[in-house]
Amino acid sequence: MSPAEQVAASPLLIFDLFHTLVSFKSDGIAGLSTSEILGIPENEWNKLLWEFSDRRLRHDLTDDAATIRELAHRHDASIPEERILAAATSRADRFRDSLLHPLPHRVDVLRQLHARGHTLVLLSNADSMEKRAWQHSPFAPYFTKAFFSCDIGHVKPEPESYQRALGGASPEQATFIGDGGSAELRGARECGIPTILTTEIIDQLWPGLAEERHSDADYIISRLEELL
């Protein structure tokens, strides 16, 4: 069975968001990165985001500067407040722009899937800053529901996340589509949901990373159009 055939057989399609449908870094969204503004090496900032983000991902924290400050000061407590504020503003703006101006071909794929009668559900590990513009995104009208970790209090790959997305449907009726970050494909599989790894964005950002995630995928695509 091909990825498109798997999708055709699935009434419910569960999509990841970041690095699956959007990425401000690969999609050409303008602006300095958070790490550049803060003066933190990019690899160190990414490490902070991964290792110390449980609170921001599980709770609806609305103070953007406080979120950045908490992470930045773990690296260097002397980073001045003006840089914290500038980084928070820039980060919020870039996430907003990535959601408001996604690449058209990805929106069109979702439009076609919706038109074919599939129920689309979003399941994203995201903080309040990252998801703030979702309701105004061109993607939003095609999704029946959108579950963000900061709203539901569960992060992928916790099974509770996938149960929320299933909404009572059986796992066999669904397919999960994502880039595989946060072990999301493995989590979906452990809940009995077939998985599709999409490498369209991560191949641009981190060549070779996709190979590490192949084992968690039932199917692999390099362009979102392969779902059709």
Labels describing this entry:
single chain; 228 residues; alpha/beta; Rossmann fold; six-stranded parallel beta sheet; 13 helices; 11% strand
Describe this structure in a few short sentences.
This protein has 228 residues and is an alpha/beta fold. The protein has 2 domains: 3-27 and 103-227, 3-Layer(aba) Sandwich (Rossmann fold), CATH 3.40.50.1000; 34-99, no CATH class. The chain is built from 13 helices and 6 strands.
Characterization of this structure:
With 228 residues, the protein is of the alpha/beta class. The protein folds into two domains: 3-27 and 103-227, HAD superfamily/HAD-like (Rossmann fold), CATH 3.40.50; 34-99, no CATH class. Helices cover 45% and strands 11% of the residues. The chain is built from 13 helices and six strands. It has helices at 3-8, 34-38, 42-51, 54-58, 64-75, 81-100, 104-115, 128-131, 149-152, 159-166, 184-190, 202-205, 209-213, and strands spanning 12-15, 119-124, 145-148, 174-178, 195-198, 219-221. A six-stranded parallel beta sheet has the order 3-2-1-4-5-6, with helices on both faces. β4, α11 (184-190) and β5 form a beta-alpha-beta unit. α3 crosses α5 (64-75) and α5 crosses α6. The longest helix has 20 residues, at 81-100. It is globular. The model has no long low-confidence stretch (mean pLDDT 96).
What helical percentage do the residues reach? 40-55%
What count of domains describes the coordinates?
2
State the CATH superfamily name of the largest domain: HAD superfamily/HAD-like
CATH architecture of the largest domain: 3-Layer(aba) Sandwich
CATH domain topology of the largest domain:
Rossmann fold
- Supply Rg: 17 Å
